[in-house]
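Reagents: none. Just compute today. Aspartic peptidase domain-containing protein.
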Amino acid sequence: MTIMRPLVALAIWAPSLITAQVCTPGNGSSTYNITSTRQALDLFSDCTTIVADQISIDDWDNGTFSLGGITNISGTLIYNYEGNVEALEMPDLRYLGGLVSTTSTGIASILFSQLLTVTGRVDIREPGVETQVSFPKLWNAGAVGITGPVSLFNLSALQTVAGDLILEDMPAVALPQLQTAGYIRISGMPSYITMPLLTSAARGSDVEALPSSSGMEINQENSGIDLEFPALASVDRLLYIQGTVISLNLPSLEYVSGTLHIDTSAPLSFDLPLASAASIELEGDITRASFPSLDTNNTSLRLDALPCAALGTGLDESDYYDTRCGQQHISTGGKIAAGVVVPLGVLGIIMAIIVWYKKRMRRGEKASGRVVDVEMVDLPAGGSGGEAGAAGERERDRDIERGRIPVTQPGMMARERSPTPPPPYEPRQE
Ligand SMILES: *[C@@H]1O[C@H](CO)[C@@H](O)[C@H](O)[C@H]1NC(C)=O
Ligand SMILES: *[C@@H]1O[C@H](CO)[C@@H](O)[C@H](O)[C@H]1NC(C)=O
Ligand SMILES: *[C@@H]1O[C@H](CO)[C@@H](O)[C@H](O)[C@H]1NC(C)=O
Ligand SMILES: *[C@@H]1O[C@H](CO)[C@@H](O)[C@H](O)[C@H]1NC(C)=O
Ligand SMILES: *[C@@H]1O[C@H](CO)[C@@H](O)[C@H](O)[C@H]1NC(C)=O
Ligand SMILES: *[C@@H]1O[C@H](CO)[C@@H](O)[C@H](O)[C@H]1NC(C)=O
Ligand SMILES: *[C@@H]1O[C@H](CO)[C@@H](O)[C@H](O)[C@H]1NC(C)=O
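Predicted 3D structure written out:
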């Protein structure tokens, strides 16, 4: 920093820097090999733009490595440092081709405070447990990978990542502006994951040059996590969720072009509006899984690790369910049948009482001595009261013997009527 200040002052003052200054390696080479901060300052102090495939920085003096005044770098910065570096800073850089950073000793801060876009890949490996990684204005990147523990990372403006977005061992994952990414992988023990605006995880056709998968994978270990992606509507190829997931809320998710895989070690119940997926694999401690909108005709289901009772709405209408859980299916059918038949029986009884009441009124009008009146009354189907049914059967047999009833139909009961009618039939209390 002490070296930098006079240089920056000079840069502001120097008339040669009012216009853009493009620097290239020369000698027909496309790379810069930097071995010290001094060398970097000598080479780049006049530059606003560096055009090179690669700027490889292998070593430098202790302290902060900071190159001011440079706004554009077309190629990839490669930091591979061993020294006692406090910070890496590119305070004026706005456009960058790519960044690869590896370290074996740790660094306190990686700060690209003005960086807006990275056409290629940002790849920061093992920065150190104490490291703060900040790209607070970066909104568009070809790919982003931060692997290894850090104390903090700031990607709070990031909106689109065409290829991979890989975050491993982050203390927490907050991507408040992220809308799309080709492939998202988050692993480790983040205390929370928030991506309120994420709508799709699908690799674009414009990332052929980048090594990229497609879809989204979350591997969360040990501590429990609530997962909510309120805007996520479609995922290409794979949506893989594994970990101690306490709650799962994907209220907008409609399409997974490939496999939806959920494996939780915490008891989890969820209800997803998914309309289509090539396959669904559920494992672990899932207590209830419902897909009310799913067309299971075209979805291959792998749910063998789950009890049938955990297969909720949608899944329980599948062929898979019929094949594997058929017994339970019938018993549910039985319950439904009972639920329909019992009210029907009660309705029948009410009808019978109404009919009986009307006939009684008519008889009252005639009032002509003893009339034997035979009336057909519907019995509750299925005979909910066995004894009453048997009693009715015996009574009917008696009546037939006496020749009072020439014909009766199954399920009907003949009842003798006298001028003073018997009390109305009362349903058995069950
Ligand atoms: C260019 O090549 C010459 C001769 O091969 C060499 O002395 C010089 O250091 C090279 N310049 C750079 C920037 O590598
Ligand atoms: C930088 O180093 C690489 C290999 O490490 C070499 O191929 C390349 O020519 C070097 N570039 C310059 C400008 O010395
Ligand atoms: C960097 O600092 C360490 C101790 O902090 C010292 O031993 C080493 O010599 C320094 N290296 C340079 C190039 O100044
Ligand atoms: C830097 O790059 C951006 C995007 O590629 C471009 O619009 C801008 O003109 C460049 N600036 C300079 C000084 O080269
Ligand atoms: C990230 O940086 C921006 C700008 O400096 C700041 O407003 C924001 O609070 C930071 N976010 C985190 C999580 O540190
Ligand atoms: C699924 O299959 C059933 C029976 O084969 C059929 O009635 C239904 O229309 C199918 N659903 C769709 C969305 O194709
Ligand atoms: C079902 O899957 C087949 C083959 O994967 C596909 O061709 C067909 O369009 C799908 N049908 C529906 C209704 O999604």
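Residues 25, 29, 31, 33 surround 2-acetamido-2-deoxy-beta-D-glucopyranose (ligand 2) (CB under 6 Å).
Action item: order primers for follow-up constructs.
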